Amino acid sequence: GRVGKTSLVLRYVNNVFSEKQEATVQAFYLKKHLVIEGVPVTLSIWDTAGQERFHALGPIYYRDADAALLVYDITDNDTFLRVRKWVKELQQMASKDIIMAIAANKSDLVRSRKYDIQEAERFASSNPSPKS
Q1: If DSSP states are collapsed to H, E and C, what string results for 75-87?
Q2: How does pLDDT run along the chain (132 residues), one tens digit per residue?
Q3: ∠ CA(6), CA(94), CA(31), 5° rounding?
Q4: How far apart are CA 89 and CA 54, in angstroms?
Q5: How far does Cα 72 stand from its chain's mean position?
Q6: Which domains does the chain carry?
Q7: Pick from 55, 63, 51, 112: nearest CA to 90
Q8: Which H or E element spans position 60?
Q9: pTM for this one?
């Protein structure tokens, strides 16, 4: 939790940002309407709580997911360790065709960086999505 998932989703869907975003409790749902190569597309986005106490609810949201964006906070090593666990869980439990992406968040706090970007890139390269 507290890596900035909700801030990313709200910026993407509604183009808004708040410095004081409240922690997500369980999950909330948003839609984003796009046109890709002339075809209307609707993204159904679940923003799930990152706190460990909500971990067991994960399968409810990712069971039929086409993609997952896993976010970590560059100022907190533990958040990348949790991303590693989520990757393993999604590889085992989600659709075999799920597309996964890892996002390093809070880049404005680069002076407080705790996690090496090269290590994150190596991890991502060694765990490619099926369609990458």
Answers
A1: CCHHHHHHHHHHH
A2: 577 888 888 889 988 877 775 665 567 788 999 999 999 999 998 887 655 544 566 666 677 889 988 899 888 888 888 889 889 888 888 888 989 999 888 877 777 766 667 777 888 888 766 654
A3: 35
A4: 15
A5: 8
A6: 5-126 (3.40.50.300)
A7: 63
A8: helix 58-62
A9: 0.75
